[in-house]
Amino acid sequence: MEDLAGRVAVITGGASGIGLATARRLAQEGMRLVLADIERQPLEAAVRELQQRGTIALGVQTDVGDLQQVQALALTAFAHFGAVHLLFNNAGVAVFGPIQDMKHSDWEWVLRVDLWGVIHGVEAFVPRMIKQGQGGHIVNTASFAGLVPNEGLGVYCVAKYGVVALSECLARDLRPHGIGVSVLCPMILETNIGTSERNRPPALGGPEASRPRTPEEQQRLRGRVLSPDVAAEKVVRAVKTGQLYIHTHEEAREFIRRRFERIDRAFEE
What we know:
The protein is of the alpha/beta class. It has a single domain (about 10-269), classed as Rossmann fold, CATH 3.40.50.720. The protein is built from 8 helices and 7 strands, in the order βαβαβαβαβαβααβα. The protein has helices at about 15-30, 40-50, 65-80, 105-130, 155-175, 215-220, 230-240, 250-265; strands spanning about 10, 30-35, 55-60, 85-90, 135-140, 180-185, 245. A 7-stranded parallel β-sheet has the order 3-2-1-4-5-6-7, with helices on both faces. Helix 1 packs across helix 7 (about 230-240) and helix 3 (about 65-80) runs parallel beside helix 4. It is globular. The relative contact order is 0.14.
């Protein structure tokens, strides 16, 4: 999908972090944008900023963990613009701590947003994108934690491994329809995911149910802290070139290589 000008992109988690950085970058390409986010005020501010820059942008408050809300997002986007060419399933949350300390509500919340949110996006948008017959591209935000186990992020890893698998399978399934798929696998970026408990619903424990990372857990996180603009630039490049995997940190390569070497060695043991 080399020429993005005039086409329509939908971005979940679009009011901050990777989503907003990507929206700004796609605006430079001349795309029309639909931003979705669970937080109304940041969403309105993001849309207002883009509109003031001359971008045609629409905001739709959306909880991606709710299929009906994602279906409503799709209906709104297609009704307003007549088509959607790029879907960025980006919204995400995290909880920290060892798996044995996780409550059922921790699993339910993270999987609801990080994995089911992507599934909902695929379910609501992809059949419509196929039917419109104009090609397109899907980008799903996974993580370095979707390729390599990260200590203290077990629940998050389970969700993000699922996003990687979904993306790999979806890429094969959509190839005959001219729709590309990419999966974004960043290490640490300057985003609000470290405080994502602010949006944890009361039914799943509310903000107080998530504990913050300890200093020791913070120190164990790998890689440089980069701007989300780095991810945005790589996302646009992947959409244009049809690249499946998107990496933001060169230092991730060694960890990924060692994981697959361990898998390969198991055949010899």
